[in-house]
Structures are given as C-alpha cells and as structure tokens.
Amino acid sequence: MPRMMMLPLVVLLVFHVSASWAASASVYDNFLQCLNTNTNPSSTQLSNIIYAQNNPSYSPVLRAYIRNSRFNTTSTPKPVLIVTPSAASHVQASVVCAKQLGIQLRIRSGGHDYEGLSYWSDQTFIVLDMFNLRSVTVDIEDSSVWVQAGATLGELYYRISEKSKVHGFPAGVCPTVGIGGHISGGGYGNMLRKFGLAVDNVLDAQIVDAQGRLLDRKAMGEDLFWAIKGGGGGSFGVIVAYKLKLVSVPETVTVFQAARTLEENATDFVSKWQEVAPTTDDGLFMRMLLQPGSNTVKATIIAEFLGNADQLVSLLGKQFPELGLKKEDCKEMSWIESVLWWDNYDNGTSPDVLLDRNPDHANFLKRKSDYVQTPISKSRLELLWKKMIEIGKIGLVFNPYGGMMSRIPASATPFPHRAGNLFKVQYSVSWGEAGAEAENNYTTDTRRLFRFLTPFVSKNPRSAFLNYRDLDIGVNKFGNRSYEQGKVYGLKYFNDNFDRLVKVKTAVDPENFFRNEQSIPPNPSFHSEPPNPSFHSQPPFSSLHLDVNVGSSSKLSMGKLKLVLVFLFISFSFCI
Predict the structure, then answer these.
(1) Which helix (H) or strand (E) holds 441?
(2) Which positions ≥6 away from 404 have C-beta within 8 Å?
(3) Looking at the predicted structure, is the pLDDT value of residue 567 above 50?
(4) pLDDT for residue 44
(5) CA 301, CA 295: separation in Å to the nearest integer?
(6) Could you tell me which of 191, 138, 132, 133 has the C-alpha nearest to residue 160?
C-alpha cells in the first residue's frame, strides 16, 4: 500500500480508538456517579470495580474469561465498561444505572457461553462480570450449599470435598465453568442418571430483577424460581447465588475408558452402547466420543460408576459382554479424585488445581446439539462413519439419559428433554488458526454434519440444549416480531415450556431490559399479574432504596451522551 494512502488510515484508526476511549470515559463518569448515589457507603472504592476502555486493566479483565477465541478478535464488539461487583448491592445499583443510561447489560459468570453472548453484543453494552462474587458456604448438617454465581464448578467441588468425602453435587465436568450460567441453563453432568440435572437440585436462589430488587425464592415467587432453573438466568435478571442440595456419593467410585475403531467392530460397539447406556444402573454414566481419523472412526466410552470395580465388572459382564471389561481396566477412587480424572489430570494430582480459574488456552470453537430418541441402526451408523471421515475434523459426543432423567416430568423445570430421549449429541470442533477463512471452513463443516444427521434425531421440534448455545438455530432482533423470532429457537430449547417462560418474562421484565440474541422475549398479549403476590414485597436482603431521581440537567447530559455514542457506532461501524 502506498505510504500516502496508509497515513489517513492510521489517523482514522487513532481517531477511532481515541473516540471510543472518550465515549467509554464519559459513560464511566456517569455510571460511577450513579453507582455512588445508589450504593450505601462501604469499604469498597467503587471506582476500583469499574473499568473503562482507557484503563490499562480493561483488556486483561475482559480477556480473562473469554473461553472462545472466535470472540476475542480486534473486530469483536467491546463493552464500553466492565463492572466487577463485589457485593450484591453493586449488582442492584448496576442494573438501576444501566437502565438510567439506556445501556444494555451482558452478564458473565464464567465466560463459557459457546457463542460468547455474555461478553459481546452488537449494541452499546456493559459487561457485568461476576467473578468477585464467588463464595461457597457448605452446610453438611443440612446437606446444602450456598454458592454465588461467580464461583466455578471446580471451586464448588473443592469446598464440598473439604467438608465431606461422601457428598457431591451433580453438575458438569469442566472445573472453570461459572455457576451462574451453568445452573440457570440446566446444569448437565455425569451423575444426571442418578440425581438429575443441577437444576433438579436447587433449593433457593437470589436474583436481582429488572427493578434492582434482590429477591430470594419466597420474594420472587414460584414462577420466576421455576424459570431460572433451566430457562437461562440472563433473560430474567442477574443470578447472584443458588442454594443447592448436596447428594450422597460412595466413598469409592470407579472409572474406565474403552475404545474401538471401525477395524475393531466399532459399529457393533456403538450399537450395543445405544441399548445399554440409557437403561443400565442409574449410578453408571457412559459417555461416548466419536472421533474421525484417517479412513476410520474411533469410538471411546468414558465412564463413571457410583460403586466399586467388582460391582461394575459384574454389571457390564451381564449387560455389555462385548465390552469385555475387566477389573484391571478400572480405576477406583474418591468422588473428588474422579472430578480430576474427568478433566484429564494425572493420578495423584492435588484437588487444589480445581481452584485454578485459568485454562491453559482458549481455542476457537463451534458447538451444536441434538437429541436422539430412536436408536440409530447399524446401517445408518455405517453411513455416519463415511460422512464423518469425508468431512473430518468434527467430533461427536453422545451423552446418555434414562434413569432419573426419565422420571422427572418435562414441565418440572424449563429444561424439557426428559423421558423419550436416549441420548444427547454434541457436535464439537476446535481449531487454532485465527481468521475468517478458518472459521468459515470449520463452522461450515459442522453445519454439514448437522444437516446429515437430520433423519436420525428428534423432530417437530428438532430439540437443542440451551447450554450448548448455537446461534445457527435462530436469532432475535427484538423488533415487532420478537415473539415469533424467539419461538424459533425457544421451542427447540424448551419445547412446550417456552410459552410459560414467555409469560414469566412478560410479568417480571415487560420492557425486556435483560436480553440477548437468544433470550426469552416478552409478549404483551401474555400480560398478566406478576406470578406471585409476594413479588411486590420488599427484598429481604437489602435495605437499599433504589428508586433513583435524576435531575433535568443529568437527563440532558445522558441524552447528549446517547447521541454521541450512536454517532460513533454509525460512523465507525466498518472499523469494529
């Protein structure tokens, strides 16, 4: 490029960055002033929990919890502010102040949203980053634990193991996943066949609603409490904490892995797995990984049994003799040691590693999901192997249901995928190359395999799992047709529970302040009284008065600020 052409581009880039910083700084000043007005005096210096774009710590804080590098590029839209509350009152005031400024909130607990919706938006937005709210209070006598939304699964498991070797909690196998998003979206784990999902074991919760009120289960009412157990907390408010019911685990659990390639009769292996995995003892969870290779597919069972090796070998010797499982193939360990095993730590690793919030690196990735309700025949499996080998790259994960999952009604929580589902499918691909071409190649191939499996999976609707977020299945622009647009993805995620979620949303957040590309839309035609009379009661946790009065001069300032922000984003949208 000629030097005389480069100079204007450099000047434009510098001007754009400077203008973005200036806009961020203006929002910072107004937001901080509002926060100070609406938060009781405390030892926390509020300026220390807010990061504008010109703050040297802004980028490290933003990137710390980005788990998908697809949304960590120079073109990814960035928040004008990052707010890192260290108390529930900060969350309450943040909701009030974001509404005053007319700026959207994105709520991040662990950053594992597969589509990055907790930390990017195409609108002017603030990230409310919950990582400082991470307390875990275990009560063994009550068999319960209060855990804040910013804690990770690893921290939850570690704190439980500190107090008991025979208690656990049925949630996911990735220790860095944040509690708030994981549980509000369903909370899937390797003990679901015995104890159900994480949401099936929630006793109470704390949420900040669209009015800035901190509510527990009694104050929010049973409809909203139902909605945040699998309906996605980000549609209804800011989850601050959950009270969870601990489950009993044996002193000894058993794990094993077993693999077959196509040359080793993987087709028969997978076919038999479909028969056994969803129907076997409730205490046995056998995940199936399918990985394409050079002219073959490798099928691997990764399993955990809530019992000892002798019991497991006897059980599978009867139900799955083709596996040929022997005691020497198994490893006996404590439940907390099995948590480390699932995350591929070496035997003997200290559970202290579960307190590490920082993964080695964040890949570029794409995920999709499906549900299988009828066993896939051997002939169709053979076709699947051919397609996987042809495409390459894309792995499949089969997660078995049955057991407790079949005994809990589909309407018990917003998560509807219960009886009638044999297993869930996750489409999984990760890559290391940056750039649009690589992303297009990998995501296109994932969609090709997804289309190929259409005849094998659930229909009307083709169901999906909310916590395997997938924008391919629908996006809401929140215009005049927001209900119809929301119904496209809503029926896939929630089936017959979608309309009940819309009714709750309409009652508690009719102005749709809490929203993202796949949130629950309000529908004025569904309007009714709030779900429970206690909804009007004052929150029991806070004496803060959050009815904020803004003077006319402040309103004028806010109006000018919004105009400047709109101008900047229109003028420089091609640079973002």
Answers:
(1) helix 436-452
(2) 192, 193, 194, 195, 196, 200, 282
(3) no
(4) 81
(5) 20
(6) 138
Six-digit token string for 35: 């926060």
Interval 109-119: pLDDT, tens: 999 999 999 99
Give the residue among 199, 277, 272 at the shortest CA–CA distance from 233. Answer: 199
pTM, two decimal places: 0.88
Position 392 pLDDT exceeds 60: yes
Q: What is the pLDDT of residues 5-61, one digit of tens each?
A: 444 444 444 444 455 656 677 899 999 999 999 998 776 899 999 999 999 999 999
Omega prior to 461 cis, within 30 of 0: yes
H or E element in which residue 481 lies: none
Count of Cβ atoms closer than 10 Å to residue 556 Cβ: 10
- Residue identified by tokens 């699964």 is 153
User: Which tokens is 183 given?
Assistant: 């549980």
A 10 A CB-CB count for 377 gives: 12
pLDDT of 227 above 60: yes
Indicate left, alpha or beta for 287 from its phi (over 0: left) and psi (-120 to 50: alpha).
beta
- What residues have CB less than 8 Å from 13, skipping those under 6 apart? 575
Residue found under tokens 């959950």 = 242
Q: Work out the number of other CB atoms within 10 angstroms of the CB of residue 521.
A: 22
Cα 505 to Cα 520: distance, rounded to the nearest angstrom? 7
End-to-end CA distance of the chain: 21
- CB-based contact 149:109 (threshold 8 Å): yes
What is the pLDDT at residue 150? 98
Pairs from 309-314 (Cβ < 8 Å, separation ≥ 24): 309/254, 311/254, 312/254, 312/256, 312/284
> Tokens standing for 274?
């479909």
Contact call for residues 467 and 417 (beta carbons, < 8 A): no
- Angle (CA) 364 365 367, round 5°: 170
Residue with tokens 């750039």: 435
pLDDT at 263: 97
CA dihedral 154, 307, 289, 296 (to 10 degrees): 140
